[in-house]
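Our consortium's second objective concerns turning raw sequence data into structural hypotheses that experimental partners can test. To show how far this objective has progressed, the report includes one record in full. It was chosen at random from the queue rather than selected for favorable results. The single chain below, 294 residues long, was entered without modification.
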Amino acid sequence: MHSTFLHAIPRGDSRCSRSVSLRFIGLVSAAVVTVATAGCAIDVDGTQTGDSSGESTSSSPSSSLQTHHSGKPRTPVSPRVSRRNKNKAAGIRFTVLRDFGLHSYHDALTHARFLTVKGRAPKTGYKRAQYGRSWDDNNDAPLGHNGCRTREDILQRDLVNVTFRPRTHGCVVETGVLHDPYTGDVVYFQHGQKTSALVQIDHVVALADSWVKGAQSWSADVRRAFANDPRNLLAVSGWVNAQKGSGDTATWLPPNKIYRCEYVARQVEVKRLYGLWVTKAEQAAMITVLQKCS
């Protein structure tokens, strides 16, 4: 069964010098980054190495990922969060329907009703290393083996006005602007040991959640692909990623209510794709949200 997952996941292109044009654009609300949280550690790139949030854990199949590289440096921006123009920010780009070939959120609702329902397995044996090295490019998910770390792939896809660190072959994002889908905040990102953690990469279905709902039986290759699958990854504000922890739909939803249909539909489709089960409370929460989506 697990080899089926790998064959179904197309590889990304082999070029490293690019910036993916798909951007998640949100409505502005509130945020100041807080990254210290139990079970999480931050590396020099601002990447969580723990998994209280499914690791500093979107989503897009390779068919919809287009690339470009900007050769001209742009004026750096200071790392900060804007709460202004709350109702004037550009609308969120909804992509889950395209990513998973759905006609509407009703399809996700139907799929949610048919997910396997079971209790959580013991968390015994869980550790981030079970899913490979953080953001390892050596994986069989879309964008794998393209020469850039998965974190950089997602930053390039989800940020706008991206500039690149010199002499990194167009991989390392130096600056950019995130319209955070979870909060609606506009986050000004700048690469650096003290600033990168302002923007983190969230696993929509957290790694720790997957571990207690089916991933323990996967091969190492499948777990590595899951941890780096862009369909399950989103760039978000660091503080909200820490707040989410390893929560599922029953225990956590994005503060930005406009994004909840997209978020829950993506959780449903990722779990369906990888054969993960849900708890009874989780399925009920998924259905409750998706019944309100048009």
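The partners drew two points from this record. The two ends are 33 Å apart (CA to CA). Confidence is low (pLDDT under 50) at residues 1-79, 83-91. Both points have been shared with the crystallography group to help prioritize constructs.
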